[in-house]
Amino acid sequence: MGVTGFAVLNETPAGQLSLKRSGEIRTATHDPFSKRLKVLFDGILQVIDSDLPDAVALEDTFLAKNFKSALKLGQARGAALLAAEFHRLPVSEYSPTAVKMAVVGYGGADKDQVRQMVSRFLQLQEVLRSEHAADAAAVAICHAHSARFQEKVRLSEK
Hints:
The chain is α+β, with helices and mostly antiparallel strands and about 160 residues long. Helices cover about 55% and strands about 15% of the residues. It has a two-stranded antiparallel ribbon with strand order 1-2. It has a two-stranded parallel sheet with strand order 3-4. β3 (about 55-60), α2 (about 65-85) and β4 (about 90-95) form a beta-alpha-beta unit.
């Protein structure tokens, strides 16, 4: 687990996105896994408490070659889901391919392409240094686009 990125975006009524805050929640690899999950849970609660988001968006678990790593990743996602539910926030999940498509326009984009496009979308002066925070911002951008589209669909059905 080690590092989990987060990003909080603001959106204007016109749909312009800006980065409110981003960062990382770090856990010590030598700590027991249960303690690391607690640190992650508390860190996400702290972000939610300070930034008051309307929703939480997560990247879907991908299939890992190592079963043990995939299991731990799933447990870490569970801590994030629980933190969101603790605040009764809606949660949306997106596959890595969907996130890359939303941000780069190509589902096979590499990490650097994602980081570059995140900085363009959010009109940042420089590329986010943290790969984890950039990934989180990409998921948030994907969610904003998806939520906007879903709202248009909902309104057209009335």
